[in-house]
Amino acid sequence: MQSLPQRSMGSDRRHRHGPYRFYAPIYDRVFSSRLKGSYKGMYSALDLEDGATVLEVGVGTGASLDFCPTGVRVEAIDFSEPMLEKARARLGKRVDAPEVSFTKMDAHRLEFPDGHFDHSMVSHALAVVAEPMCVLREMKRVTKPSGKIVIVNHYKRGGGVLISLFNPIRKRFGLGMHVDFESMISECGLEIELSKKIGRSHRTLFVCVYSNTNE
Ligand SMILES: C[S@@+](CC[C@H](N)C(=O)[O-])C[C@H]1O[C@@H](n2cnc3c(N)ncnc32)[C@H](O)[C@@H]1O
């Protein structure tokens, strides 16, 4: 197993985790209930076999795990303890649950060795983190080169110029910024194997693999 990468501890990256303390009690009622298609799409995009290891980044209240097959081992990380508390309680109520380990962790500095997971995934969190590109690179690093990285998020192709003007405000309230996912995926040395719309909204699911011409 390879060692963890060395990183500078004094990052001046500005996180916006505060809002999630307020969202945690209402998140499932207001948001998760509308995102079931995203969660289902994310887990069913991978043909997960018993014993497969998966990283879920920014798991939030863990509503996505309702769609995770039993027999799969999930490492679920999030930076917000109130969101993680909700996720632990939610999973605890299930009789037939997958094996999930919840950890408070910054997605910009994943504390796992290179190639540790069979696959990794992120639902509606990549546009919320301070540096989406850094997080996607980290997800790629900890995923086996044969694995897949699944991203599901609101995404409007080409509609970014106007929407991007609101990014600073959206960031302050912990809401998703406009991110050009397609460019970011290719800049990270990944290729889109599958891209599909979820429901009638602007939600899009991307299944990414290592590109042949890897950086
Ligand atoms: C919009 S919620 C999405 C939650 C869940 N994945 C879902 O789809 O319902 C975004 C989540 O990302 C988490 N988050 C934000 N920045 C993070 C970071 N740097 N590291 C880990 N989690 C982070 C927040 O705490 C929050 O739970």
CATH class label? Alpha Beta
Architecture per CATH nomenclature, i.e. the level-2 architecture? 3-Layer(aba) Sandwich
Residues in helices, as a percent range: 25-40%
Q: What sort of overall outline do the alpha carbons produce when their principal axes are compared?
A: globular
Strand order within the widest beta sheet: 3-2-1-4-5-7-6
Which kinds of small molecule does this entry bind, naming each only once?
S-adenosylmethionine
Give your account of this protein's structure.
The protein has a single domain, classed as Rossmann fold (3-Layer(aba) Sandwich), CATH 3.40.50.150. It has 8 helices and 7 strands, in the order αααββαββαβαααββ. A 7-stranded mixed sheet has the order 3-2-1-4-5-7-6, sandwiched between helices. It is globular. The N terminus is likely disordered. It is 28% helix and 21% strand. The two termini are 22 Å apart. It is of the alpha/beta class. Bound molecules: S-adenosylmethionine. The site of S-adenosylmethionine (SAM) has 23 residues, from β2.
List keywords for this structure.
215 residues, alpha/beta, Rossmann fold, seven-stranded mixed sheet, 8 helices, 28% helix, disordered N terminus, binds S-adenosylmethionine
Produce a short descriptive summary:
This protein has 8 helices and 7 strands.
Produce the secondary structure layout.
Layout: H1 18-23, H2 27-30, H3 36-44, E1 53-57, E2 73-78, H4 81-92, E3 99-104, E4 119-123, H5 132-142, E5 149-154, H6 160-164, H7 167-172, H8 181-187, E6 190-198, E7 203-210
This protein binds S-adenosylmethionine (SAM).
